[in-house]
Design a protein that fits this description.
Layout: H1 5-25, H2 30-41, H3 51-54, H4 58-74, H5 78-81, H6 85-111, H7 114-124, H8 129-139, H9 144-177, H10 182-211, H11 217-238, H12 242-256, H13 258-284, H14 292-320, H15 325-330, H16 339-353, H17 359-391, H18 399-404
Helix pairs in contact: 1-2, 1-13, 2-13, 2-17, 4-12, 4-13, 6-7, 6-9, 6-14, 7-9, 7-16, 7-17, 8-9, 8-17, 9-10, 9-16, 10-11, 10-12, 11-12, 11-13, 12-13, 14-17, 16-17
């Protein structure tokens, strides 16, 4: 008799909850506790959650990433971002491209393989919204840096997904055919991007329209959740980007029905909290210490190139948009976490290229590099985010008393 998926997921949530309490008492970001307990429970140490068990939890990844995309998409309220719109777009584009370019060039210098370097660069361009949102929610931060960070990570992930779609088209075409049809590649990639965004916008409009006929908050949440799951399922089955679709759906809702959207966000945050915690715990179990001897040097190159690309790119974008000094100084420190969308992209690499000749090795390399560096980025990243927000004076002093006792 096999182990039930519910048993695995329930255990992951409980272990993550206990680890989060420990992290909270240490006044450390909760996400650090989630990831570290996953590493301890995984095949590197106790092997309680082995790869065979974790691989059965794909629905957890889908739900968690969908909720993350929904929360981040909801931050793209045009009236709220209008004042900082130029700054946010400038920073997001610069830091995403900075990480993509620097990681691609650095890893190509050592691997001499354009496919590997481009895939790693695409994965590196993403910033983990879940880790960043977790820190912001935990410390209840509020201010210009917080608003800018949320706007940047939302747009950043959209940019990262667009970069990945083009890179995936390039690599899959090369692996399958040995040559490229650039016009076809661009057409197919743009079609996937526009279809994902378009369907998400339509679903957002649909929820906003139907929501006017539903007055009770719980009923409106049920309607939203149903269409949310329907949209994510359609994206997966149609080969679209579920993350782009859900982000655009939430963005449309937050702009067409801002008050109704705000009223149900509490439900999504309450329901999503344990799911995201379990997701981080299960993600941590995938780290294999034994792989360091095979990919250690490449992972280190990737790690430092990504840190530098994010920091320099964000600073450049802030300077070009003439952002306040506080943003120019600290924004780059809040963009280092990578596990959320980057992990999704790494899993997509395995799905997209695992069956192609030479693709299995490429997928394995990308996932291993990401998982090895994740434990560092998810430890250093949230701490750097907390430091930046603290230095900016946006962490409320009373949050420790309320949350830490």
């Amino acid at each position: 008799m096999g182990v039930s998926s519910l048993l695995i997921f329930g255990g992951a949530i409980l272990f993550a909850f206990m680890a989060g309490r420990v992290a909270e008492r240490l006044r450390a970001p909760l996400v650090i506790g989630y990831v570290l307990i996953g590493v301890i429970l995984g095949n590197s140490f106790l092997n309680i959650f082995n790869p065979d068990l974790v691989n059965r939890m794909e629905i957890v990844n889908d739900l968690a990433l969908g909720i993350i995309a929904f929360i981040i998409g909801g931050e793209l309220n045009f009236s709220r971002l209008k004042r900082l719109g130029k700054t946010i777009f400038s920073i997001a584009i610069s830091e995403s491209l900075g990480a993509f370019i620097l990681v691609s060039l650095s890893t190509y210098f050592f691997t001499k393989d354009i496919k590997t370097s481009l895939i790693l660069g695409a994965v590196a361009s993403a910033t983990a919204p879940a880790a960043t949102v977790s820190v912001i929610n935990q410390y209840r931060t509020k201010g210009i840096l917080t608003t800018t960070i949320l706007g940047v990570v939302a747009i950043d992930d959209g940019i990262a997904l667009i970069i990945y779609i083009f890179v995936a088209g390039f690599v899959s075409s090369f692996l399958a055919l040995g040559h490229l049809h650039f016009a076809k590649l661009i057409f197919l990639s743009l079609g996937k991007i526009l279809s994902s965004l378009g369907l998400g916008l339509i679903l957002g409009i649909m929820i906003s329209y139907l929501g006017r006929k539903v007055r009770e908050k719980r009923a409106f949440f049920s309607l939203t959740l149903g269409i949310f799951l329907l949209g994510e399922g359609l994206a997966i089955n149609l080969g679209l980007s579920e993350l782009l679709l859900i982000m655009s759906m939430a963005m449309m809702m937050s702009n067409l029905s801002p008050h109704r959207f705000t009223s149900i966000m509490e439900y999504f945050e309450v329901v999503g909290f344990p799911i995201i915690a379990g997701f981080f715990c299960l993600a941590g179990t995938r780290l294999s210490i034994s792989l360091f001897t095979k990919i250690g040097f490449l992972a280190i190159v990737y790690l430092f190139a990504r840190f530098l690309g994010k920091y320099l790119g964000a600073s450049l974008g802030a300077s070009l948009s003439k952002a306040p000094e506080l943003i120019r100084k600290y924004i780059g420190l809040a963009l280092w976490p990578q596990i959320g969308v980057a992990l999704a992209l790494a899993i997509m690499v395995e799905r997209n290229f695992g069956s192609l000749e030479g693709g299995e090795y490429l997928a394995s390399l990308a996932i291993n590099v990401l998982l090895f560096t994740t434990i560092i980025t998810e430890t250093v990243g949230p701490l750097a985010t907390k430091y930046a927000l603290s230095r900016a004076g946006e962490i409320r002093k009373f949050s420790f008393k309320q949350k830490g006792g």
